[in-house]
Amino acid sequence: MNFVDLPVPLEPTYDRSPRTIKDLCKEHIKAITLFTICIVIIIILLAVSMCLFLTPAKKNVAVLPMKSITLFLDYYKKLYITDYDRIVMFSPDSIEKASIIIGKDSIRLPILDKPRSIFVDVDENLYVLEVHFDFKEEFYIYRVWYWSKNSTNGKKLLEGNGDCYSLYIDKYMNIYIPENGNHRVVIWYAQQQYQNFSIVAGNGTSGSELNQLNEPYGIYLDENNDKFDLYIGDVKNRRIQKWSLNAAEGITVVSNVNYPMQIASDCHDNFIVWNGDALKLYNSMLTTGLDGIYLLNNFYSGAMGYDNKNGAVYICDMTNNKIIKFSIEGEILLHNTKEAPTA
Ligand SMILES: *[C@@H]1O[C@H](CO)[C@@H](O)[C@H](O)[C@H]1NC(C)=O
Ligand SMILES: *[C@@H]1O[C@H](CO)[C@@H](O)[C@H](O)[C@H]1NC(C)=O
Ligand SMILES: *[C@@H]1O[C@H](CO)[C@@H](O)[C@H](O)[C@H]1NC(C)=O
């Protein structure tokens, strides 16, 4: 029998020093530690990337002061907001920066007691309505304070009786106040240093006749071409009344309006009406049977500001403590890029 030489097994070229149980354990622990570190790193990386992904892009949203109940948008689109006993102003070019213009932490005096309404005229003079309830006598007193532009000291312009929520200043600086509790709108004359007032709408008895009002709240004055047409949100009568200068009675321009707390108008006879939780559009040409077009719904707010040049509405969202601007912005549909032929 021939025996074939079996090949001699080669010596392993790598070091295979014998490993003890201890060594194996050590390696095991090392592997586990490495594995754990890797997992932790992966989790951290994932978390960081998720955070980056989920965090919304930083917008320049201003942090509002406390709770705002009213706002005013002036001619220059500066936004004035009440904050308990202060008034804060936001400028359109630096909306993230607020300036406290009246009240605590401001150089302007006096400190007001929860202002109800603000009005700023085209010369940036400021008017503030403040209302007190006299518990002893059980009636309301309202006051209008005035700060001329840049002045630090306010002065009291007038004091009247009745509950009210808004004011409007015409171009002669006369002050219109819808006294909702007295069911009338009064005008205080600048020429008489606001000593005297007259009734411009309503006869003082609540009712639904054309010479009457029932809880007027919001007003809007159309003083173009010296018309002086006063539009009134006649809340309990659910209508918008128009009273022309020296008229003995009003005309109903829109009926079936739910709670017209604040009203504004655009150049097409549309009325933007804020009723406390919805914003609606009414047209005076379509007076009956229509309940308005919803622009916004379920939005509890204290006030509305309307920019009738751009059709933007500013809402003071009291539930969420936010001021929100809704705007209809145009887009370019057609654009002729060719230059006009030269003659
Ligand atoms: C108000 O202050 C501004 C800037 O400080 C100034 O330019 C302006 O002339 C002042 N206006 C009035 C009416 O004093
Ligand atoms: C206020 O009205 C009364 C009566 O109309 C008038 O006598 C008085 O002079 C007026 N006051 C001012 C400051 O104009
Ligand atoms: C207001 O007008 C109504 C209806 O014409 C009338 O009944 C009421 O007495 C008037 N009120 C006053 C104070 O004149």
UniProtKB/TrEMBL annotation:
Transmembrane intervals: 31-55
Alphabetical list of CDD domains matching this protein: NHL
The entry's keywords: Membrane, Transmembrane, Transmembrane helix
InterPro entries the UniProt entry points to: 6-blade_b-propeller_TolB-like
Protein name: Uncharacterized protein
Organism (species): Didymodactylos carnosus
Upper classification of the organism: Eukaryota, Metazoa, Spiralia, Gnathifera, Rotifera
